[in-house]
Amino acid sequence: MIGVSVIGAGFWAREMHLPALAQLPDVRITSVVATSQESAERAAATVKAKALTDIAAAAADPDTDVLDIVAPPDVHLKAVEIAAAHGKHAICIKPLARNLTEADRMLAAVKEAGTRLFYAENVPFIPALHEASKVVDAGGIGTVFRVKACEGIGEPHSPWFFDPERSGGGAILDMAVHSLEFCRFFAKAPVSTVYAEAGTFVHGKKTTAEDTAVLTLRFANGVIGQCEDSWSLKGAMDSRFEIFGTKGRILVDNLHRQPLQLVNDTAGWSYPLPIPGLVADGHLAMLGHFLDCLRSGAPSLSDGQVGRDVLAVVDAAYRSVASGRREEIKETTR
């Protein structure tokens, strides 16, 4: 049995991580930590866990093995360092940190403690994308030369997103991390350079952070990537992924119809997924994968270093917005 303390009691904790963890076998949710006792009790009651307001108290619990950090980015570094100090593993929601300096401190903390840090980015675990990967790996669309992702919402679900001191940034840090991980997943090479355009068009009265961004990527193997990410998409959400090959293309619309569509010289078919969001968005598979890795000691598809590497691209994107030039990526592992 693996004991998990969920750090955070907001929307994503209540709607995604707590329900997913409750479905996994041999997992016990030991506590929920929130800034107020009332919020902690409200979330903890749904899974019959303890309600706490102190991260250190959660980490000190002998029944807890992992801290699942589903709190705002200004909490991530502190929570990971507390987990490491108590010899506990950590799962951290995207973005891994507000900047590269914080990410490096997190990685150093778990390295010194001999614990593990998992990066809770759901995109690599989306079932439709795994089906797409099978097609690509089998040569079904030829050689991949371009990848594109669109991630958009009308407005963040909590006011803290609009405070760059807490969030670390705007739509690039919050939304483009999804797009970047998709592009990296299918380009199968490190990002070499990025050119970014960004602005605040809809929420200027609420924040100085960007609510709209477009990133153009060039990968080390020549693949071109495009990321369109926003907090300014009125009336609907967007989560679309495209893979372009020399012999065909694939479109995954993960929100509106939940299919994978394949078109090439010989076929045209779709892969419908009329299934719940926990499954369709990969959250259930992601958390299950992390806990299986702890049981077996196997490497993870999405660890802290992956989160750090995504932040290196985010860092270059913000430098590009400031300079108006294409910027190189600082060192990454992939």
The end-to-end distance, rounded to whole angstroms, is 33 Å
Strand line-up across the major sheet: 14-13-12-11-7-10-9-8-15
Fraction in helix: 25-40%
Instruction: Summarize the helix and strand pattern as letters.
Output: EHEHEHEHEHEHEHHEEEEEEEHHHE
* Shape by Cα distribution: globular
Instruction: Supply the helix-strand structural class.
Output: alpha/beta
Average pLDDT for all residues? 92
- Any idea what the radius of gyration is? 19 Å
Count helical runs. 11
Low-confidence stretches: none
Strand content: 25-35%
Q: How many extended strands? A: 15
Largest sheet: 9 strands, mixed
Give an account of the 3D structure.
There is one protein chain. 37% of the residues lie in helices and 27% in strands. With 334 residues, the chain is α/β, with parallel strands linked by helices. The strands form two sheets. The chain has a nine-stranded mixed β-sheet with strand order 14-13-12-11-7-10-9-8-15. The chain has a six-stranded parallel β-sheet with strand order 3-2-1-4-5-6, sandwiched between helices. Helix 1 crosses helix 10, helix 4 runs parallel beside helix 5 and helix 5 runs antiparallel to helix 11. The longest helix is centred in the C-terminal third of the chain and has 20 residues.
